[in-house]
């Protein structure tokens, strides 16, 4: 497996900014929403051009519902595996969350109760997924706008047990660390230090905004300074991992996107990709 730790700063590939991404001279990896790629069709031209430059492309799933009480859908797993093969991906990633129950689609990534039963459900679904994947999987804890009552485990213990039992990698979303700590009124550095940082495959960095007293991980706002500070704190604690800027709408001008990428590079000590 290619080690993501050497891939510097990347960006989420979206059709709306494909032209901008194609012009980044120092780019070494991108991430694409797995469900947006047709596994039985040619690679989208923008992604094909990046692969020709030896830019790694990571499929990022959003619909597996690994935290659901029901077994993960086999067709969705096969699609993720096929996209990984199509893109010659070094790994894939998905969320520790559920998105459906009883055939009803929520349309959102929903948090799990941090219970032993939820750990067992995630572990079982990750094992089912790993059995059909040609590459490793990295699991991403989500930004939760609420916690279930009477949780058995802390967020860090919940995540650590899942990763240890599945031997999966960690997709650490720095913006989610900030969001969860802010919404709970806790110190994000304490959460960061409690996480199994040795399992980090790569990291997300994104912006958000507060609404109704809750900080939302929007992916449509600029990356705030506290999140960049957490990037620096992470890189001071371990070898800097690959870092990816997430933008999923309200795309700013190219100069603004370049400035965000440069700010992440500066916070981590990586060279600029622009």
Give a description of the structure.
The chain has nine helices and twelve strands. By secondary structure, the chain is α/β, with parallel strands linked by helices. It has one domain: TIM Barrel (Alpha-Beta Barrel). The strands form three sheets. It has an eight-stranded parallel sheet with strand order 3-2-1-12-9-8-7-4. A two-stranded antiparallel sheet has the order 5-6. A two-stranded antiparallel sheet has the order 10-11. The longest helix is centred in the middle third of the chain and has 15 residues.
CATH class: Alpha Beta
Largest sheet at a glance? 8 strands, parallel
Radius of gyration: 18 Å
The CA-CA distance between the termini, in Å, is 27 Å
**Secondary-structure class:** alpha/beta
Per the CATH scheme, the topology name is: TIM Barrel
Summarize this, please?
The protein is of the alpha/beta class and 274 residues long. It has 9 helices and 12 strands. The protein has helices at residues 18-22, 45-52, 74-87, 116-130, 155-166, 174-184, 188-194, 225-237, 254-268; strands at residues 9-12, 29-33, 56-60, 92-96, 98-101, 104-110, 137-141, 169-173, 200-205, 209-211, 214-216, 242-245.
């Amino acid at each position: 497996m290619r080690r993501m730790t050497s891939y510097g700063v990347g960006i989420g590939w979206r059709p709306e900014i494909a032209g901008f991404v194609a012009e980044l001279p120092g780019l070494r990896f991108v991430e694409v929403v797995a469900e947006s790629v047709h596994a039985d069709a040619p690679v989208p031209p923008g992604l094909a051009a990046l692969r020709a430059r030896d830019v790694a492309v990571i499929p990022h799933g959003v619909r597996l519902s690994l935290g659901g009480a029901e077994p993960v859908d086999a067709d969705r797993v096969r699609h993720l595996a096929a996209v990984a093969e199509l893109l010659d991906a070094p790994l894939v990633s998905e969320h520790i969350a559920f998105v459906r129950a009883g055939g009803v689609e929520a349309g959102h990534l929903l948090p799990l109760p941090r219970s032993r039963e939820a750990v067992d459900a995630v572990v079982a679904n990750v094992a089912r997924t790993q059995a059909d994947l040609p590459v490793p999987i990295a699991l991403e804890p989500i930004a939760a706008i609420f916690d279930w009552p009477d949780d058995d485990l802390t967020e860090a213990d919940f995540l650590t047990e899942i990763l240890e039992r599945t031997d999966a990698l960690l997709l650490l979303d720095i913006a989610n660390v900030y969001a969860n700590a802010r919404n709970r009124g806790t110190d994000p550095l304490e959460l960061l230090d409690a996480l199994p940082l040795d399992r980090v495959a790569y990291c997300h960095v994104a912006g958000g905004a507060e609404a109704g007293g809750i900080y939302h991980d929007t992916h449509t706002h600029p990356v705030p300074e506290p999140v960049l500070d957490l990037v620096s704190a992470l890189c001071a604690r371990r070898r800097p991992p690959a870092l990816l800027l997430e933008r999923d709408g309200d795309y700013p001008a190219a100069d603004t996107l370049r400035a965000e990428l440069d700010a992440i590079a500066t916070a981590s000590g990586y060279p600029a990709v622009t």
